[in-house]
Amino acid sequence: MDRPPGPPRIERLTAPQPSWLAMRRALWPEGGTDAELLREMERALADPGTCVQFMAFFGAQAVGFAEAAVRRDAVNGATLSPVAFLEGLYVVPGARRQGVARRLVQAVIDWAVGAGFAELASDALLENTASHAMHRALGFEEAERVVCFRRAVP
Ligand SMILES: CC(C)(COP(=O)(O)OP(=O)(O)OC[C@H]1O[C@@H](n2cnc3c(N)ncnc32)[C@H](O)[C@@H]1OP(=O)(O)O)[C@@H](O)C(=O)NCCC(=O)NCCS
Predict the structure, then answer these.
(1) Which end of the chain has fewer CB within 10 Å, C or N?
(2) Domains in the chain and their CATH numbers?
């Protein structure tokens, strides 16, 4: 990917954008239809006291996004409640290992600090070892491992 020199530009999102939707679909392929994802994005944008969204750009090209929210229920691994939670983080394959996630997470940290939080919680699937490595590199410590179960009833 051609990119201008220097770090990515980070912008707080204020409206749904096609590239945000495309990256959300890539991160959450089973997250619903485009219409459902868009409704979710609009709900989140309408609640800036709870949710925040950032997009990273190299020049005019969107290369990643981060979403965070205030979670008021108990959160695995968090020591505080309510707590700021990193809900989603995605960088397009051609822009990885160039510090994009690092910048996006810093934007989320700045938002969390500004909102008065002393902790940022997050999670990752057990098999997503790249995400585990990234979390550790960005100052997170592993707090807990969880396996989710379900069964049909009766
Ligand atoms: C995980 C992800 C967000 C990382 O984004 P990124 O922009 O490449 O990360 P950065 O370049 O900011 O990396 C910061 C540090 O994290 C670590 N890191 C990042 N990706 C890594 C990988 N694949 N393997 C090992 N360490 C990694 C490194 O220490 C890196 O610093 P370095 O490049 O100077 O060594 C990106 O790979 C991605 O979008 N993956 C698919 C979606 C996903 O898994 N999202 C997280 C869900 S919990």
Answers:
(1) C
(2) 9-137 (3.40.630.30)
